[in-house]
Design a protein that fits this description.
The chain is mainly α. The chain has one domain. It contains 3 helices and no strands. Helix 1 runs antiparallel to helix 2. The longest helix is centred in the middle third of the chain and has 26 residues. It starts with 12 loop residues before the first helix and ends in a 6-residue tail after the last helix.
Length: about 80
Amino acid sequence: MSEQPEPASETSGPLGRGWVVFIGLAILTVAEYFLAISIDQNVAILVVFAIAKAGLIIHYFMHLARLWFGDEEEL
């Protein structure tokens, strides 16, 4: 008997992960916007949002992890 391969989930593969990163960046951007218009002086929390967004972009789009783990390692 041959086994049927399982269908790929929507978040598997590069396109699915791209959508997850896109949604994550969109959520962080909207949260950052509403936080920015609600505070007056303290911008330290905005720096945290900016670092989180930069981390997503560096990890996914710039493939920084490949410098240490190589091409065969999928993160």
